[in-house]
Specification:
- The complex is a heterodimer.
- Chain A is mainly alpha-helical.
- Chain A folds into 2 domains: 51 residues, 3-Layer(aba) Sandwich (Ribosomal Protein L9, domain 1), CATH 3.40.5.50; 110 residues, Up-down Bundle (Methane Monooxygenase Hydroxylase, Chain G, domain 1).
- The longest helix of chain A is centred in the C-terminal third of the chain and has 27 residues.
- Chain B is of the alpha+beta class.
- Chain B folds into 4 domains: 304 residues, YVTN repeat-like/Quinoprotein amine dehydrogenase (Methylamine Dehydrogenase, Chain H), CATH 2.130.10.10; 64 residues, no CATH class; 276 residues, Beta Barrel (Lipocalin); 80 residues, no CATH class.
- Chain B contains 10 helices and 51 strands.
- In chain B, helix 1 crosses helix 2, helix 6 packs antiparallel against helix 7 and helix 9 packs antiparallel against helix 10.
- Chain B starts with 8 loop residues before the first strand and ends with a helix.
- The chains are: A mainly alpha, B alpha+beta.
- Chain A: This is DNA replication complex GINS protein PSF2.
C-alpha cells in the first residue's frame, strides 16, 4: 500500500474520528424533512419537535446548516462525568466510558457547545479524565507480555495511541520467547 | 403533631444551612453550602429567587428591617437590600472564615464572629468604622445582640459566654460552664438566644437541656429538659411573642416547649436539623437540615383549648391592615377586615397583661370561641354565609382537613377551591413567562420596563412559519397556539374590558386577525382554548363563550358548575373542567363536560374527574387523535375511555412517571405537554426545577406503560411485562375502536385495529406458552378465552398439544367457533 510510514502501523486520529461518525445520536430537527433512503440506513421523516435518531455525521451536518439541534448523549452530562471522574481517580481500572467517547466528545464540543449544559465545566472534566486514563495506560503498558495485554474499557482513540508501541513490543517479545524456547 | 405531609424545599446541597425570616415575615432567606442565597416568598410555592455571590459555603445570615447580610467561609460579609436582592455591597473582610453575624437592633452595626480571635463591629453605613473586641484567645462561634439594646453576647470556642455592654463596648460579664466548647464549624449551638422582649436568654447547656438565664443575676431561671435520648442541640429559637421555645436536636428532631407551663407541647421527628426560624407572628416553624433541605411546618403546635391563633399575634398594637396583609392574600383579608379590630385589640389587651389565664382568653375577647388554623381564614357562624358567597381562597398544594382532634370545637368547613390549570403555561420567572408551550411551538412574553410586554411566537418547525414578536400593551395573560394561528386573551382592567385577540400565522386575506371585547363589565377570561374550528372562552361571569375561528359567536351558556378550572378543544369537541364541590374529606372535586359543538350533543355532563387522594390536576388536554388525557400532581397520566357514551367514561392510568427507570437514579419531574402517537410528550425538569427553562426546552417522549404489574425493564418477555403489554394494547384498541365512526371506517383505522388485535394475541400466546410450561391449566384456559382471533385459538391449541396437555387442548377445541 502506498501509505506513509507513520500510517502503516496505525490509524490517524482523523480517521478514528471519521469512523466515530457512524454512531447514532438524537437530534431535534428544526424543519420538517422527508425520508432519506441511504445505503447503510434510511433516515426517517423528521418532524419537529420530535427527536430523531440519526448517524453522527448527519447530525453534525444538519447542525452546521442550522436545521437541527443535537441532544447530547446520556453520558455527556455534568453529573455523570463528575462521578466518572471520581471513579477514575479512585480506581486503578479504567472507568466505563463508551467505546468512542473521546472522538464523540471532541466532535460534539466543537460542533454544538450551545447544546451542552455547562460546556466549560464538561470540557474541564473530560480533560481530567483523559489525563488520568493516559497515565493509567502508560503504567499498564509495562505489564505487556508476549501473550496478552489486558486493558479493559479503553476507548478507541486510546487504543489507537498505544497500538504502534504495543504491537512492536509484543512482536519482539514473542520472537524472544520463541527463540528462548527453541534452545 | 401535624398530620400534614411536609413538602421539603430543596434549598442547598449537603452541609450547614441557615435561615432567617425578614422582620415583616414576607420572605424567608436560606443560605447554605452551595454558595447561593435563596429568597423564598412566604406563603407561596414559587421557585425562590437565588442570589449567587460568595465563593465558599455561606455560614450565617442576619436580617434588619431593610437589609440582610450574609457571611461565608470565604471571609467576606456582604449586605443586600431586601427588596432588590441583586444589589449587594461588600461590607467587610476578615482573614479567616466567618462563622456568625448579627445586626444590632437599630440596624446600624453588624457584629462578626469568625475564626479570628477578634469580634468585629462594623458600621453598616460607614464600613470604615470598625470596633474590635477581643474576648478570648480562641476563635468565636456566635454573636447576638439583645433586643433591649443593652448587651452583645459572644460565644467563644473555649466554651465561655461573654457579655459586652452595647454602648460602651466594655466587657460586663463572662460565664463559664454555661455553654459547650465547640469548634467553629460544628453544627451544635453555643449561642445565647435572646427572648424577644424580657431580657432573658436561652442557651444549650452541657446536660443537653435548654437553660434560660436572666441578665439580672446571670443565673438560670429555669431549665427545659428534653425527652430521653435527646442530645446534641443544634439550634434554639423563641417564637415571636416569646411564649414558645423550639429546640432542634441533631438526630432526633425538634421539640417545642410552652415556657409558661414548661411542658413539651409539640415534637417533630426529622434527622439532621441544623437551623430553626419561627415565622413572625404565626404558628409556623421553618427549619433546615444539613442536607440542605428546607421544611416549613405550618401549625407546628397543635391548637387546643389553651393555645389559639391569637397566641401568635404580636403583643403590641400595630396597624392591623398592614400586619395582616403580609401574611395573607387579598381574599382572606376581606374576610378578616370585619374581625380584625375586635380580635387584635383583645389579643393585645390580654397578652400584655402579665399573668393572664389563657384559658379565659376567648370568652373575654370575642363573641364566639374561634378555633383557627394558621393557614385558613377565620369564619364564625355569622360569617359563614358571607364566606360562602365570596370567592373562597384558592389553595396551592392542597392539604386534607382533619376532623379528629376533639379539641377543635366547631371547626367549620374549609372551602378549598381548585385553582385554574393552564396547560402549557408557566408563572412568571423573572420577567418572562411561557404563555403556551406545545408541539407546534411556544409563545412567551417578556415584561419590559415601561409597562408593556413583548410577546414572541416561535415555532418548532421553522420551515413552515417564521417566528415573530410584537409589543403588547394589553398585557395578554393567556394564549393558545396551533398550526394556523394564535389566540390571546387579556383580563378586564379598570380602563378596559376583557379582550380576546386572534392572529393567524399566514395572513392571506390581509385582515383575518380579529379582536373582540367581552361584553359584560369586569368579565375576564379564566381559560381559553383553540381548535381547528372553534375558540372557547370561559369567563369570570360563569359564561362559556364559543366563537368560530373568524370571531362570530356560535354559542353561549352559563356553566352549571363554577369556578372554572380549565378548558380544551379539539375540532368540534369542547372539554370544560370546573370545581364540583368538596369531597367528604374536604378536598376539591372537579367535574368535566364534553360537548360536540357542531352536533350540539353533550357527551359527558359534569362527570367526575378522577383526581388522586390529596392531589390536584396539573394539566388536561386532547391527544392528537381527540381523546382527553389528564396529568395529575402524583405524576400519573390518565386517558379517558368510553367517553362517547354518557355515564360510561372512565379514567385509566396509562403512564406512572414514578415508575420510570430513569426516575430511580435521579430527581426529575415531568412537565406535561401533550400526547401524540400514543406517547407522552413532556419536558424533563432536573432537580427541583418546576417549570421549563428559557430559551428552548427539549421535549422527551415516553411510551405508555400501564401501572398494573411490577416493572421489570430487563426482561421484556417476563410474565409481568407481557401482562402489561397485553393490557396496554387492549386499552389502545378500545380507544381506537371508539374513535371509529360506524359505517365509515377508514383504511388506516382498520389497519390499526388489526395490528392491535394481533399484538394482544401475540402477548397472550406468549403468556399461554409460559403457563403451559408451568402447567397452570386454569390460567391457560382463561388466557385462551381472552384471545381475539380464531387463528390464535388454534395456535393456543397447538401450544397445549406441544406441551402434551391434551386435556386443555380439548377444552380449547370447544372454544373454537363452529367451523
Amino acid at each position: 500500500m502506498a501509505l506513509p510510514r507513520e500510517l502503516e502501523a496505525t490509524f490517524s486520529p482523523e480517521e478514528i474520528e471519521f469512523l466515530a461518525g457512524n454512531e447514532y445520536i438524537d437530534i431535534v430537527p428544526l424543519e420538517t424533512m422527508d425520508q432519506l433512503p441511504l445505503v447503510s440506513a434510511t433516515i426517517p421523516i423528521m418532524k419537529p419537535p420530535k427527536k430523531c435518531r440519526v448517524p453522527l455525521w448527519l447530525a453534525l451536518e444538519l447542525k452546521r446548516q442550522h436545521r437541527a439541534r443535537i441532544a447530547p448523549p446520556e453520558w455527556l452530562d455534568l453529573s455523570n462525568l463528575e462521578s466518572l471522574r471520581e471513579q477514575e481517580m479512585e480506581m486503578d481500572m479504567f472507568s466505563k466510558l463508551p467505546f468512542r467517547w473521546l472522538e464523540t466528545a471532541h466532535l460534539l464540543l466543537n460542533a454544538c457547545p450551545d447544546d451542552i449544559e455547562d460546556v466549560e465545566e464538561v470540557r474541564r472534566i473530560l480533560l481530567t479524565i483523559r489525563e488520568a486514563r493516559q497515565s493509567k495506560a502508560r503504567a499498564g503498558l509495562e505489564a505487556v507480555n508476549e501473550v496478552q495485554l489486558a486493558l479493559d474499557n479503553l476507548g478507541a482513540m486510546e487504543i489507537n495511541e498505544i497500538r504502534p508501541l504495543f504491537r512492536e513490543t509484543m512482536n519482539r517479545m514473542r520472537k524472544i520467547v520463541q527463540v528462548s524456547e527453541e534452545e | 403533631m401535624a398530620g400534614n405531609r411536609l413538602v421539603p424545599r430543596y434549598a442547598h446541597t449537603d452541609g450547614l444551612t441557615r435561615l432567617a425570616y425578614t422582620v415583616d415575615g414576607t420572605f424567608l432567606l436560606t443560605v447554605g453550602s452551595n454558595l447561593v442565597i435563596r429568597k423564598f416568598q412566604v406563603g407561596s410555592d414559587e421557585e425562590p429567587e437565588s442570589i449567587d455571590n460568595h465563593q465558599d459555603p455561606i455560614t450565617g445570615i442576619a436580617v434588619s428591617k431593610t437589609h440582610f447580610c450574609t457571611c461565608s467561609e470565604d471571609a467576606t460579609i456582604c449586605i443586600y437590600p431586601i427588596n432588590n436582592s441583586s444589589e449587594h455591597t461588600l461590607l467587610a473582610r476578615t482573614t479567616l472564615p466567618v462563622r456568625d453575624i448579627a445586626y444590632s437592633i437599630d440596624g446600624d452595626w453588624i457584629a462578626i464572629a469568625s475564626d479570628e480571635t477578634a469580634v468585629k463591629l462594623v458600621n453598616t453605613k460607614e464600613p470604615t468604622q470598625i470596633h474590635s473586641l477581643r474576648p478570648s484567645k480562641t476563635s468565636n462561634k456566635h454573636v447576638s445582640f439583645s433586643p433591649n439594646e443593652k448587651f452583645l453576647a459572644i460565644s467563644s470556642c473555649n466554651g465561655i459566654l461573654y457579655f459586652y455592654d452595647n454602648q460602651s463596648r466594655s466587657l460586663l460579664k463572662f460565664l463559664t460552664n454555661t455553654i459547650l466548647s465547640v469548634e467553629g464549624d460544628s453544627d451544635l449551638t453555643s449561642k445565647a438566644i435572646w427572648h424577644p422582649s424580657d431580657g432573658t436568654f436561652a442557651v444549650a447547656n452541657s446536660e443537653n437541656q435548654v437553660a434560660i438565664l436572666s441578665t439580672d443575676d446571670w443565673l438560670a431561671l429555669y431549665k427545659l429538659t428534653p425527652k430521653e435520648n435527646y442530645s446534641s442541640i443544634t439550634d434554639i429559637a423563641w417564637s415571636s411573642n416569646g411564649r414558645f421555645l423550639a429546640a432542634s436536636f441533631r438526630d432526633k428532631g425538634i421539640l417545642i416547649w410552652d415556657t409558661l407551663s414548661k411542658e413539651i407541647v409539640s415534637e417533630h421527628h426529622y434527622s439532621n436539623v441544623v437551623a430553626l426560624a419561627w415565622q413572625p407572628f404565626a404558628n409556623v416553624l421553618s427549619f433546615t437540615t444539613n442536607q440542605g433541605v428546607l421544611y416549613n411546618c405550618p401549625e407546628v403546635i397543635p391548637f387546643s383549648g389553651s393555645i389559639t391563633e391569637a397566641d401568635f399575634q404580636k403583643s403590641t398594637q400595630l396597624t392591623n391592615g398592614h400586619k395582616k396583609r403580609v401574611i395573607l392574600d387579598e381574599d382572606e383579608e376581606e374576610l378578616y377586615r370585619n374581625q380584625n379590630t375586635n380580635e387584635n385589640a383583645a389579643a393585645a389587651a390580654d397578652i400584655t397583661n402579665g399573668e393572664e389565664d389563657f384559658g379565659d382568653f376567648n370568652e373575654n375577647a370575642l363573641d364566639d370561641p374561634l378555633d383557627l388554623d394558621g393557614d385558613s381564614y377565620m369564619v364564625n357562624e355569622d360569617e359563614l354565609e358571607v364566606a360562602k358567597k365570596r370567592k373562597a381562597r384558592p389553595i396551592h398544594g392542597h392539604q386534607p382537613v382533619s376532623f379528629e382532634d376533639g379539641a377543635r370545637k366547631r371547626r367549620l368547613l374549609q372551602f378549598a377551591v381548585h385553582k385554574p390549570v393552564y396547560a402549557g403555561s408557566t408563572p412568571w420567572q423573572g420577567n418572562r413567562r411561557y404563555l403556551c408551550l406545545n408541539l407546534v411551538g411556544c409563545i412567551w412574553t417578556v415584561q419590559q420596563d415601561d409597562g408593556h410586554n413583548t410577546i414572541t411566537v416561535e415555532f418548532h418547525d421553522e420551515s413552515n412559519h417564521r417566528k415573530y414578536h410584537f409589543p403588547d400593551d394589553q398585557r395578554f395573560e393567556l394564549a393558545c397556539l396551533d398550526e394556523e394561528g394564535a389566540l390571546f386573551s387579556a383580563p378586564a382592567t379598570e380602563q378596559s374590558p376583557g379582550v380576546i385577540y386572534y392572529k393567524p400565522h399566514v395572513d392571506w386575506s390581509r385582515r383575518s386577525e380579529w379582536a373582540l371585547m367581552l361584553p359584560m363589565e369586569d368579565e375576564s377570561p379564566i381559560s381559553i382554548a383553540l381548535s381547528s374550528s372553534v375558540v372557547v372562552v370561559c369567563t369570570t361571569s360563569g359564561y362559556v363563550r364559543i366563537y368560530s375561528r373568524t370571531g362570530f359567536p356560535i354559542s353561549i351558556y352559563r356553566s352549571k358548575q363554577l369556578p372554572f378550572v380549565a378548558c380544551s378543544a379539539y375540532k368540534d369537541l369542547v372539554l370544560i373542567v370546573a370545581n364540583g364541590g368538596a369531597a367528604a374529606d374536604g378536598t376539591p372535586q372537579l367535574v368535566y363536560t364534553i360537548e360536540d359543538i357542531s352536533k350540539n350533543y353533550v357527551y359527558q355532563s359534569n362527570d367526575g374527574l378522577a383526581l388522586p387522594p390529596a392531589g390536584e390536576l396539573l394539566s388536561i388536554f386532547f391527544s392528537d387523535v381527540g381523546d382527553p388525557y389528564m396529568y395529575d400532581s402524583d405524576g400519573v397520566l390518565l386517558a379517558l375511555l368510553h367517553w362517547r357514551t354518557p355515564g360510561q367514561a372512565k379514567w385509566v392510568p396509562v403512564l406512572d412517571t414514578n415508575e420510570l427507570e430513569r426516575r430511580k437514579s435521579r430527581q426529575e419531574s415531568y412537565w406535561p405537554v401533550t400526547v401524540a402517537d400514543n406517547q407522552f410528550h413532556c419536558i424533563l425538569l432536573k432537580g427541583s426545577a418546576r417549570y421549563p427553562y428559557f430559551p428552548r426546552p427539549m421535549f422527551t417522549e415516553f411510551p405508555f406503560r400501564i401501572p398494573c404489574t411490577v416493572m421489570t425493564p430487563d426482561a421484556p418477555t417476563s410474565v409481568p411485562s407481557l401482562e402489561e403489554l397485553q393490557l396496554r394494547n387492549v386499552i389502545l384498541l378500545t380507544l381506537t375502536e371508539e374513535a371509529i365512526d360506524e359505517g365509515n371506517v377508514s383504511q388506516e383505522q382498520q389497519l390499526q385495529v388489526t395490528k392491535l388485535e394481533a399484538n394482544i394475541d401475540k402477548a397472550l400466546l406468549q403468556l399461554i406458552q409460559k403457563a403451559c410450561t408451568e402447567e397452570k391449566l386454569e390460567r391457560v384456559l382463561e388466557l385462551t378465552k381472552s384471545l381475539r382471533r380464531t387463528p390464535s385459538i388454534l395456535a393456543a391449541q397447538k401450544i397445549a398439544l406441544h406441551h402434551s396437555l391434551t386435556q386443555i387442548a380439548e377444552k380449547i377445541g370447544t372454544l373454537l367457533p363452529a367451523a
